[in-house]
Each structure stands twice: as structure tokens, then as C-alpha cells.
């Protein structure tokens, strides 16, 4: 009799040090997908609504598990004095360092900027110059965010659901992200729907299967004005679309 698989891939077990950012960009972003452009538009409009056209004085932004994706950071650009890209995998940290160096922003991110600059707040920003001026990269583990450090605006794209197969690590990922946001902070978080894991080059990475209800349940304790967009676009076999959650951090105190 064939025995079922009983162990679950935990975050610490996945080959993060082998993550290939160039292959990942080729797979996901080099040819922009309609769904990503739609996500960028929804996020742009959400942040524009939250700030109602008034640029805050000294907002600090964070993109957690930034990986090889610059569009969440670009979406925060007009609103922030500083943006931190927090990432665990060393090859991705090196990729991000190259992207934020003067003149380093890859043309692959232009189509995403084209969507952003259709909104007034983005129009006069020079993305390449501003990225190298205000964005910094830090190698860190999302699980080490314990509520001590807080940001004014934040994003987390395809991370809590795409880092482990364990339900408790998904919950912990969402909790650590939300506890890194100050009261009232606008946020955007994206999840692959019903993902069974993903391959980048030669390596396989784990995922925890989420649907709209699971995402809502995980975010609700921390969020105000929560809206979840169920985007039925398939990027590859092995998932059923994407979920985009938009909202603000509520006023509840951090949950341990
Ligand atoms: C599917 S990728 C998403 C990357 C990017 N945010 C995007 O939108 O394409 C998952 C990312 O989570 C990062 N990651 C995995 N475990 C992490 C951890 N414990 N702390 C911080 N980042 C982690 C990976 O290195 C990878 O960059």
C-alpha cells in the first residue's frame, strides 16, 4: 500500500539560498501579465485614496519578502520618505541591491510604472532616481518582525502563502507583516490562490493553499476597510488565480 506524504515543507527547509531572481523575473514579470498590471492599478488607486492626494511628511514604507519584484516598492514611491525592502534569500537581496543602485532599475519595470504614472501623485516622480535615493535593502527574516519596528505603509506580495506548506507559518507570516504596520497604515498584500507550490529554475518552493475566506480570516483581526479582490487569472498550472487584499492597519494592539 502506498503511504501518503506526512511531512510538510517548512519555511526553513526550502532552498532560499538557491533562488534565482533572473529566472523568477523571466517567469513572472519580464513579459507583464494583465493580472499584475491590474493589481498595480488597484494598489495605486488604493494608496491614492488613502492619502487623498496629500503626500505625507515623512512616511516610511516596507515591502516584506520583496524578492525579485519592484512593483510594490514603485507603488509606494510618491508617499514615502524611505522604503525598506526586506528579503531573506541572498540572491534576491543582491538582485535588489543592483536594482536600487544609481541607473540600476531594469527596464522590465517600465510597464508597471506606466500604469502608476497615470495617477497624479506618480506623474512627476522619476522612478529610477527616486528608487536609488530612498529605497534600501535589508536581509532579514519576516518571522523576526516582532512588532518592535513599525512602518507607515506596507506591502507583502506572494510571501506568507508562498514560503511554507504549514498553516501556522502562513498565519505567523500574516501576523508578523500586520504587526509591522502602525495604526492606520495603508497596506496591500497579494496571495496565490490554491497554490500547490512553485518551481524557479531547478528548485521547488513550498506554498500553503489559500482561498478568499482563509485570507480574509487571517487579515481581519488586524485590518480596517478590508477589501479582497479575487482575480481569476492563471499564471501557470498549480494555482487558481490571485487574491489582492487592500486595507489599513486597524487600531488593535499587536498580537504575540
Ligand atoms: C514567491 S516569492 C515572492 C517575491 C516577490 N514579493 C513577488 O511579488 O514576486 C516569495 C519570497 O519570499 C521570500 N521569503 C521566503 N521566506 C522568507 C522569510 N522567512 N522572510 C522573508 N522573506 C522570505 C523569498 O525569498 C521570496 O523572495
From TrEMBL:
Pfam families: NNMT_PNMT_TEMT. It comes from Streptomyces griseicoloratus. Keywords: Methyltransferase, S-adenosyl-L-methionine, Transferase. GO terms for molecular function: methyltransferase activity. The keyword Transferase applies. NCBIfam families: SCO2525_fam. Gene3D superfamilies: Vaccinia Virus protein VP39. This is N-methyltransferase. GO terms for biological process: methylation. It comes from the Bacteria.
Amino acid at each position: 500500500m502506498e503511504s501518503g506524504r506526512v511531512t510538510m515543507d517548512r519555511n526553513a527547509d526550502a532552498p532560499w539560498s538557491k533562488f534565482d531572481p533572473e529566472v523568477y523575473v523571466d517567469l513572472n514579470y519580464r513579459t507583464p501579465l494583465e493580472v499584475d498590471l491590474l493589481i498595480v492599478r488597484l494598489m495605486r488607486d488604493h494608496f491614492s485614496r488613502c492619502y487623498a492626494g496629500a503626500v505625507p511628511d515623512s512616511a516610511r514604507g516596507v515591502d516584506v519578502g520583496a524578492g525579485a519584484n519592484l512593483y510594490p516598492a514603485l507603488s509606494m514611491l510618491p508617499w514615502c520618505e524611505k522604503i525598506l525592502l526586506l528579503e531573506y534569500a541572498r540572491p534576491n537581496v543582491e538582485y535588489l541591491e543592483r536594482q536600487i543602485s544609481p541607473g540600476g532599475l531594469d527596464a522590465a519595470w517600465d510597464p508597471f510604472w506606466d500604469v502608476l504614472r497615470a495617477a497624479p501623485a506618480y506623474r512627476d516622480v522619476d522612478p529610477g532616481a527616486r528608487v536609488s535615493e530612498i529605497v534600501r535593502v535589508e536581509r532579514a527574516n519576516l518571522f523576526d518582525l516582532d512588532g518592535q519596528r513599525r512602518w507607515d505603509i506596507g506591502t507583502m506580495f506572494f510571501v506568507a502563502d508562498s514560503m511554507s506548506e504549514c498553516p501556522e507559518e502562513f498565519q505567523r507570516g500574516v501576523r508578523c507583516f500586520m504587526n509591522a504596520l502602525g495604526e492606520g497604515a495603508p497596506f496591500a498584500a497579494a496571495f496565490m490562490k490554491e497554490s500547490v507550490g512553485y518551481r524557479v529554475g531547478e528548485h521547488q518552493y513550498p506554498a500553503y493553499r489559500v482561498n478568499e475566506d482563509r485570507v480574509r480570516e487571517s487579515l481581519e483581526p488586524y485590518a480596517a476597510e478590508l477589501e479582497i479582490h479575487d482575480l481569476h487569472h492563471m499564471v501557470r498550472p498549480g494555482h487558481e488565480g490571485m487574491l489582492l487584499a487592500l486595507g489599513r492597519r486597524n487600531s488593535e494592539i499587536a498580537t504575540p
